[in-house]
Design a protein that fits this description.
Helix content: under 10%
Strand content: over 45%
Order of helices and strands: HEEEEEEEEEE
Strand order of the largest sheet: 1-2-3-4-5-6-7-8-9-10
Distance between the termini: 29 Å
Number of strands: 10
Structural class: mainly beta
Shape: globular
Low-confidence stretches: none
Mean pLDDT: 94
Number of helices: 1
Length: 145
């Protein structure tokens, strides 16, 4: 039987054209990195989101597994990338606002996005002072393919 709380994320399922932009670490200013994202169901209680970005010869892959802790009434996200980095995030989603947040000892990180039927406009931010101040890392835009 399908998890009813996870069903609220059905609008994310599908193929997306992805663009990373306004990143402090990319030169020159204004550079955009194209990519693609696939969100699919994994069984009845999980979603898998895979993003591939293509920056010339550079290629990066990021995977999120989104699930639900029913006992805690909360979404849970597991992240990994091609560097072998693995992180966990808490998540909220109300159909229009999507937030993933990690508050780890090394630094805090969050993804904040506005969700429409065929477009998601988000940004990744980080904090080195336990969330007192935030710096934007980059914007990430998804357009339904």
């Amino acid at each position: 039987m399908r998890n009813s709380e996870l069903a609220k994320l059905d609008g994310l399922v599908g193929e997306w054209t992805t663009t990373l932009s306004d990143a402090w670490f990319l030169e020159p200013a204004g550079v955009e990195v194209p990519g693609s994202t696939t969100v699919e169901r994994l069984g009845e209680s999980l979603l898998v989101m895979r993003t591939e970005l293509h920056d010339g010869a550079e290629h990066s892959t990021v995977t999120f597994v989104i699930g639900r802790s029913d006992a805690n009434d909360a979404y849970v996200v597991l992240y990994e990338d091609q560097r072998g980095v693995c992180r966990t995030f808490g998540m909220t989603f109300d159909g229009r606002r999507w937030l993933m947040l990690r508050e780890d000892p090394d630094f805090h990180q969050r993804f904040v996005a506005d969700v429409e039927a065929d477009r998601i406009r988000g940004r990744w931010e980080m904090s080195e002072d336990q969330g007192k101040s935030w710096r934007k890392d980059f914007d990430l835009t998804f357009v339904r393919a």
